[in-house]
Amino acid sequence: MSGQPMPCDAAEIRSLFLFEKLSAQQLDRLCGEGRVEQFDPGPVFTEGDPATCLYVMIEGTVIMSRRVGSDDIEVSRTSQPGVYAGAVMAYLGDGKPQRYMNSVRVPEPTRFFVLPAESFANLIHEWFPMAVHLLEGLALGSQTFQRAVGQRERLLALGSLSAGLTHELNNPAAAAARATSSLRDRVAHMRNKLGAIASGPYHGDALKALVELQERTAERVSKAPALSPLETSDREDELADWLGDHGVQNGWQIAPAFVQGGLDVDWLEQVAVAVGEQELLQSAIECLNYTVEAELLMSEIEDSTTRISHLVDAAKQYSQLDRAPYQVADVHELLDSTLLMLSGKIGPQVKVVKEYDRSVPRIPAYPAELNQVWTNLIDNAVFAIKSAGGEGTLTVRTARVHDRLLVEFRDTGPGVPAEIRGRIFDPFFTTKPVGEGTGLGLDISWRIVVNKHHGDLKVESVPGDTRFQVLLPLTATDLDTGPDALSDPAQEPS
User: Fold this and answer.
1) Are 442 and 480 in contact (CB under 8 A)?
2) In this structure, are 223 and 267 located in the same domain?
3) Which DSSP string corresponds to 51-81?
4) In whole angstroms, what is the distance from residue 33 CA to residue 114 CA?
5) 436 and 347, same domain (yes or no)
6) Is the domain of 307 the same as that of 373?
7) Tens of pLDDT, residues 268-315
8) What UniProt keywords apply to this chain's record, in alphabetical order (predicted)?
9) Is 111 helix (H, G, I), strand (E, B) or coil?
10) Of 216, 190, 411, which is closest to residue 293 (Cα–Cα)?
11) In sequence order, which residues have a C-beta less than 8 Å from that of residue 275 and are 6 or more positions away?
12) What is the DSSP letter of 99?
């Protein structure tokens, strides 16, 4: 866009802080190569177009915005003379093709000093040769350093997740191993007891009844109800008394397993009637005890191996192993897998509440990238909660907001102070102690959500209620798949 040409006054140009140290000859050259233009209310330049000019405001008001999906989000509004935007990095030359990283418009007639990008680059190289080398090194070195630190942060996060996953896998694996060892012992005792019963002077009908009791007992164990601690204690006392009254030895040791297996006094009365012979009751009770314990141990093994299987599935879901990078995904599956992967870091002190709107549709996205966003936001929330005393609540909520999907992470930590809230998405800015944060977690999350998915990431915070909100398009957009989606620093108003 171009404005109305106006005379270039060297004295007026000198009043701008960007040019106040230039000589008269340099100011004359600026006026010769540049121009003053007045823009009526409307756009000055648009995000994504080739960066052809540097704009320095002389008088008026400037509004800077970034495109998020189909919306333009205002990020800055100022009337400060001398603010500049546009081709601010033209001095990098052809090695770095320049595009406007934001849009600028004016709400009132506004005058700019406009300098073509090529002229700006030539003047910088001619007038400040040493500064050019420093600026090039700073710009390119910062990007390289940012990529290296970002990669390092990803590796650290992967190491933390691996350690947590190993810990989570170890618990059910160890439980399954212990249960298997105990089960082998119970089966051996059962074989010995059955051998002793078979060799005893018992009638065939009694032995048949005992076998039937074993089958019915195994079925009863699989349907055992959950009891409260008080109910469990009372029932154990009842069973121990019954066993003692019927001459069964070590009844107090047998009663807990029977209660856990769902057996009660009525069931034992049926056992006594079915066995018929008092001499056989002791052996029958011991045999049934081995049956109950074996069933309970097999249930424990099943639970442990199922837990391992779920963890492996969660790891595959989290890493998106053997899946296309871009796909239509269920955001709830991604959230669940991330929460499970981070369960070791979350710990028992942090209560996790899920408020999922299951009616929201699947969305086109890069699931592995979104899992990295969830990881960063959950990690920050857990750190905030634990730093404020160690206990609190993390609430993960999903909802549909017009044509976008909202994923919200709410924690009960101390909150983000208002004076730093505008900087938390800046590269290398962190409030964590030295060695605990690189300051790239939120920056990377911003790039993934905003640059790569054309969504939005924002924060609302008061003490005890901090909410990071991720808004993602429900329908496919021209997602950014290039390397610059996560590596280029956004140019902010200066």
Assistant:
1) no
2) yes
3) --EEEEEEES-EEEEEEETTEEEEEEEE--T
4) 9
5) yes
6) no
7) 888 888 776 666 788 788 888 888 888 888 888 877 777 777 667 666
8) Kinase, Transferase, Two-component regulatory system
9) strand
10) 190
11) 206, 209, 210, 213, 281, 284
12) B
